[in-house]
Amino acid sequence: MLDLKGFSRVGIIGLIQRRVAAVAVPESDIVCGSVSNAPTGLRVKRRISHEAAMLGGGILILAGAFVYPYMEGIVDTIAPGCLFHRITGLPCLLCGMTRSLAATTHGQLGEAFRMHLLGPPFFIVVAVVSVGLAAEFMFSRRILPRPSERAWKSIGWWTLGVLAAAWVARLVFFGINV
Fold this sequence. Notes:
The chain folds into two domains: 10-47, no CATH class; 50-147 and 163-174, no CATH class. Helices cover 65% and strands 2% of the residues. It contains seven helices and two strands; from the N terminus they run H-E-E-H-H-H-H-H-H. It has helices spanning 7-24, 50-78, 83-88, 97-105, 109-115, 119-139, 149-174, and strands spanning 30-31, 34-35. It has a two-stranded antiparallel sheet. It starts with 6 loop residues before the first helix and ends with a helix. Mean pLDDT is 79; it is low at 22-35.
């Protein structure tokens, strides 16, 4: 029996496709919001997992930090720079982070801390999480803990607070133009 609840929103074809997909695809084939072995003829949206997105972002950050010194002139001509700095004359919370990550990548820790106080610790966190996620994908088991939604909110607020404190410390100890 076909349940026609919600017919006005998805139409009869959508209801039939949902019913066929529910019957044709066993529960074990649904992984991270995607269907791995969908029957032919069904349109299935594939979605990348949060872990894969974080791993990709970490790899991009680490690779960008390594390559940035070699492309700095090109980046400066293409990118407009920090809009907050242009308007206020003050560095923003993240001004210097790219240069700090690049200096950390190349072993210049003194320069990295001068550019942004949180650059080297951020680099270490990104590297550790990226290696952990890569190991999870290779060994197909969880290694890193997963924070709850409430914990993510706390992490976000703490991160913002630490960024603001580092920004004030940077203005006090190193001045405006770093």
